[in-house]
Specification:
Helix content: 10-25%
CATH superfamily of the largest domain: D-amino Acid Aminotransferase, subunit A, domain 2
Largest sheet: 9 strands, antiparallel
Order of helices and strands: EEEHEEEHHEEEHHEEEEHEHEEEHE
Structural class: alpha+beta
Radius of gyration: 20 Å
Bound molecules: pyridoxal-5'-phosphate
Distance between the termini: 37 Å
Low-confidence stretches: 1-6
């Protein structure tokens, strides 16, 4: 995304967490040196797509104390994704070791306040060596991490996607499973070739109702009201989105969760309304849009400094970095690790 390319997710932190599911249960895991792993070429994750991931961040506050943002929500969500992919749910104890203990051990590589975050990538893959199509009975749960600089997103030029589909009712769109992202890469590349930075996904049947933006949720602010479609089986339940809705309420900004159509957006633009539009996700917080193309017509969004979306963005980052009161208990402070590493 945008100018994150060169820095985001390319430098691994020196430690990782690994736990195995075997003999019908998740075993106790361990924090170890970041290294390659060995899998059989028969490993089922290579063939039938039983792969699920999460993404979350650790921050430093001005006192350089480390916290993790809403990790219990990521825990709940990875288990929703695992269930959809017929994979075994992770116990909270493995999650807490993989996230909190790992971050404690990595506290020295969490970028200082104002200089970025430690991005955490938990994931589960089917490791059983077998070519038959069925749910595996051996899995690995890993957590890797990557220190990344402050995220700055240039306002994006986006295209309403009227042909390709990201997710369909009854499908897996609400799960963070690998195939959803693989399937989006070709439409994304084509949009790039046409000069766009991002896709606005619409529903699979009519290609008329907004769902998500690339691999983010998204919202509008029109007439001072924050509008975002509700999570469903085709709209992933983003933790950043949930957080921004709460922050909007705290700021007494009007907010409504409802379906929003391409026709309604076109009307808003044609009526000369000021439209703020933005992607919502862990990586960027809010990624502002500068232009939206609807069936070849390009409309300009309001993304100047006075835009209300920046207040939401600033408040979210403030809570995450300890400069705005954490009214909802979203941060888990991380202290010394209880596990010692070999
Ligand atoms: C991860 C993700 C989001 C955003 O979720 P956050 O919890 O806010 O990071 C939205 N849509 C899709 C498709 C995603 O994969």
């Amino acid at each position: 995304m945008a100018n994150q390319k060169t820095s985001f997710g390319s430098t691994p932190a020196p430690l990782m967490y690994l736990a195995k599911f075997e003999n019908g249960k998740w075993q106790k895991g361990a924090i170890q040196t970041f290294s390659d792993i060995t899998l059989s070429p028969f490993a089922m994750c290579f063939h039938y797509g039983q792969t699920v991931f999460e993404g979350l961040k650790a921050f430093k506050n001005p006192e350089q104390e480390v916290s993790v943002f809403r990790h219990a929500d990521n825990f709940d969500r990875i288990n929703v994704s695992l269930e959809r992919m017929a994979m075994p749910p992770i116990p909270r104890s493995n999650w807490d070791e993989g996230i909190l203990e790992l971050v404690a051990d990595l506290r020295n590589v969490v970028p200082s306040f104002g200089y970025g975050t430690l991005y955490l990538r938990p994931f589960v893959i089917a490791s059983q060596a077998k070519l038959g199509v069925e749910a595996a009975d051996e899995y690995l749960f890993l957590v890797v991490a990557s220190p990344s600089g402050s995220y700055y997103s240039n306002p994006l030029k986006v295209k309403v996607e009227r042909h390709y589909t990201r997710a369909a009712p009854g499908g897996v769109g609400y799960a963070k499973c690998g195939g959803n992202y693989g399937g989006s890469l070709l439409p994304f590349r084509k949009a790039k070739e046409e000069g766009f930075d991002q896709i606005l996904w619409t529903d699979s049947r009519d290609h008329e109702w907004f769902e998500e933006s690339g691999t983010m949720n998204f919202g509008f602010i029109i007439d001072g009201q924050f509008i975002t479609p509700k999570p469903s089986d085709t709209i992933l339940d983003g933790i950043t989105r949930k957080s921004l809705i709460q922050i909007a309420k705290d700021l007494t900004m009007p907010i409504i969760e409802r379906p929003f159509s391409v026709a309604e957006l076109r009307q808003a633009f044609e009526a000369g309304k000021q439209v703020e539009a933005f992607g919502i996700g862990t990586a960027a917080g809010i990624a502002p849009f500068k232009e939206i193309s609807i069936d070849g017509d390009l409309f300009a969004c309001h993304h100047e400094e006075s835009a209300l979306m920046y207040q939401l963005k600033k408040n979210l980052l403030g809570v995450q970095t300890g400069t705005v009161e954490d009214r909802h208990g979203w941060n888990t402070m991380v202290t010394q690790s209880k596990l010692s590493i070999a």
